Amino acid sequence: MVSLILLLPILTILSFFAVFPEPAHALWPQPRNLQTGPSTLRLSPSFTITVGVPNPPADLLAAAQRTRALLFNDKLGRLVLGRGTGDLKAVSSARVLSHLTLKLDGNVTTTTARPISVEAKLPFGQRDEGYRLIVPEDGSAAVLSANSTLGLFRGLTTFGQLWYTVSGTVYTLGAPVEIQDSPAYPYRGFMLDTARNYFPVSDIERTLDAMSWVHINTLHWHIVDSQSFPLVVPGFTDIAQKGAYSADAVYTPQDVANIVSYAGARGIDVLIEIDTPGHTSVISKAHPEHIACAEAKPWSTYANEPPAGQLRLASSATTNFTVGLLSAVAKLFPSPLFSTGGDEINARCYHDDAQTQNDLAGRSVEQALDVFTQATHGALKKLGKTPVVWEEMILNFNLTLSNDTIALVWISSSDAAAVASKGFRVIHAGSNSFYLDCGAGGWVGDFPAGNSWCEPYKTWQNAYTFDPLANLTTAQAPLVLGGQQLLWTEQSGPQNLDSIAWPRAAASAEVFWSGSGGNVSAALPRLHELGYRLRQRGVHAISLQPEWCALRPFACDLTA
Amino acid sequence: MVSLILLLPILTILSFFAVFPEPAHALWPQPRNLQTGPSTLRLSPSFTITVGVPNPPADLLAAAQRTRALLFNDKLGRLVLGRGTGDLKAVSSARVLSHLTLKLDGNVTTTTARPISVEAKLPFGQRDEGYRLIVPEDGSAAVLSANSTLGLFRGLTTFGQLWYTVSGTVYTLGAPVEIQDSPAYPYRGFMLDTARNYFPVSDIERTLDAMSWVHINTLHWHIVDSQSFPLVVPGFTDIAQKGAYSADAVYTPQDVANIVSYAGARGIDVLIEIDTPGHTSVISKAHPEHIACAEAKPWSTYANEPPAGQLRLASSATTNFTVGLLSAVAKLFPSPLFSTGGDEINARCYHDDAQTQNDLAGRSVEQALDVFTQATHGALKKLGKTPVVWEEMILNFNLTLSNDTIALVWISSSDAAAVASKGFRVIHAGSNSFYLDCGAGGWVGDFPAGNSWCEPYKTWQNAYTFDPLANLTTAQAPLVLGGQQLLWTEQSGPQNLDSIAWPRAAASAEVFWSGSGGNVSAALPRLHELGYRLRQRGVHAISLQPEWCALRPFACDLTA
What we know:
Chains A, B: Keywords: Glycoprotein, Glycosidase, Hydrolase, Signal. In chain A, 33% of the residues lie in helices and 18% in strands. Chain A is α/β, with parallel strands linked by helices.
């Protein structure tokens, strides 16, 4: 496979440009190697997908079934004038494709054909998302092959994006199609905060679907925070009981299992975050003994947003409690990763907390944080988890962290260089490019000016032109695992989840799958088509331009 | 009524402040005179609304029925900790309200009890939206009285906002309630652009419902523009046939009649706008002879956004065509107002158009515009319409305009003073405070920076703190008819209509009903409740804060 990838680029670049200015396929993210031809091909109404894998895992069979259903349910008219009626003549005389066959490459035995959900949770070095897709122009069976069921799933997703519908006929342009694909970066995420405002399970599942359609492979679930604690943790059920917004606004262990399973079947790992020691005010409702400066006023003295409250990190009782809590949570989530957070620790909170001052017994907060973190990370390590932290844990404190700790760089993407210089791996989550919530004004009350710290709105263009390796040395480049867009939900809820996230969140998905350097003009027609396809599939992706522009690729470019 | 208004303020101010910090009623807009008491009152499950009006108009009866249904369908838990469970004791021992009686004040005969829809379309001086609502604390019948069915409708809307639900019981706090209400300004609007992207009739109707719930009385319908022409105009059907995005993306005369009727029954007048002579590119699809610089490139030379194209204002044939078109449209809309637009006229378009240069025959564009405008406005006047124009028609050109012409001030609210100094009436529609679309980045293609001319996002706080009379003399103040928030839809569609508009658009509704000067801290708890109530009624209003804040009035204020 490696040699093929090395051989293909020249052909690919040629064919890539040959399809502009009118893209023949609305593929997102752009495959890394794509060859197209001149022919139209239509799908047989009795089109079948054959999973040619011995003892195929149930989630692969289900994925094939879903893909098959979408082919006929999408009913996406091509985004050109006439919505594809101009293709009718070519469609009517086109060859008919009746079959897609899936097969695993190499020496596959039944024991190696692991479920997608298992492949999706392998450590990064072992996870293989590559696939090869060949759609001949003569109507003979299309073939999708990969080294893993996860690769087959990615290929199915791409196959599902090849098709348009006109007058009831499903067809593609540019056959034959040959795709050799694999991601530029192993981590491509989407973060959702379910603590500021709660989201029902169905919203999360719809989001997972949308993520899977653009090859995003990780849901970073910021599940709890100072405002609410919706996670029902076995052995710690009193926290959600007293800290969820309501008895209905919770995620039970069964909900979690369903979400993890739903995600896994779509090639998505669920990276859970229990933010510590800050962002934990709500734990005081059930365990006041563990929280310093709980709801202390003025909140702005003790926290970046209300309510204030941090775990008493210098207390051995609180440390034990936290280790127990994190361990219990870790057992609900099979991911190899676990985030312990670590952002925005407020020094004044500990300074003014008499118990913490007593517990410190002359140690600094940093020293106590080191002990605390070694305890939590040590427990997670024992459970097989690799710790993930916000960047402050690496850049603001001198802590004893395991070398494999992963940093979420959020304050500024430029901090990636400092993290890398300390040898830690980086996930790009920069507020400067990837915060979906920015640009909606300030939300704190009694503040008529109403601005906010992370203005302006982070456009898809901003995310799309992001360079993951900026300011890094060649040697540091492999430390960048990938990146994600993030939705903090102070001003969001189920009402605007889709509209604030889609299609914007697809921008980073392409950067981290296809590699950076794409240009926004070339990308826009494909992004329109993704948006329209998402809508056909029930995700309320917004319009990026007037439909007049969407139907006329490049006509609304700045210099057109 | 006038004397009552003069007598009430002192009592009102006292009671207004007495209910803080925990508002007993989530009324939006705030009634101009409100007195509340200490008692809880619950609604009988067999609660009835009696319309004590001889030969009541059907739309009033229907409004009473809808109000009655909402009382029991809202199921809004009070936005405090426990969502009203703390009220249960008071509720269980509360008196029961079984009746609301509506009656018209004065010497009402069957001929004066006009439908709401008729009252809603009267000229401003004759339109009476005032009402008086008394809800006794002893369970005796509540009484809603007004001089008009339109006033009764406003009162019904307010009555519907008095109620919460806890454990299946519908109740209010703060009885007795006495409200004497009427608007500070006669025009309170919401503008929707259905040309950049199309909205189905159902979206417009849902928007009309939401508007009516905050006493907004005008839908300013920017129905067509350069990108698409969805309005099917009798005698001019070819324009929509060739200029709508699709055969389905149109408003037929029957759709218009339905929308006008739906609006009228909710106390809303529909102010239609056919923007001229600019913003008309799409007319070239059916009538190329009438459009200068149609889709000329580069678009940025000939228009503020693609595609370019303006009516050939110097041509008598085009003038006649426009007069015919506007007259045909005017007959579809019973409003006393009609907007002929007039914004963003591009000089270069006419300069480079050979036919226009020939048609001008030595006249200036301004002179031709004067003739053109006198023709269109003259025709509209004959049909009983008062012309509405964008501010450039008054400030940028020296035109012969009727004294009663109304200006939409959009470029900057500070331009209101210049408009008023010329003696024209003003509707505030300033991009600096009221443009709902601003702050989402630029949408033109091939523009990686992605900023836009009207950054940043216009927060609800910005709209709420707007002063309609800033920089105006006392003598000029009566020229201000009111104002509106506006949704231009380059980056919007049905997917984000609710989330971009609500509850933000309620901010101007309160400014122009209750009067300016409200403070954002006091308003926020009520605005939260409005947002939650809108959701219960099917409008996807967004969260303005984490629910933690919404349940704790003032706890997330900047200095709390």
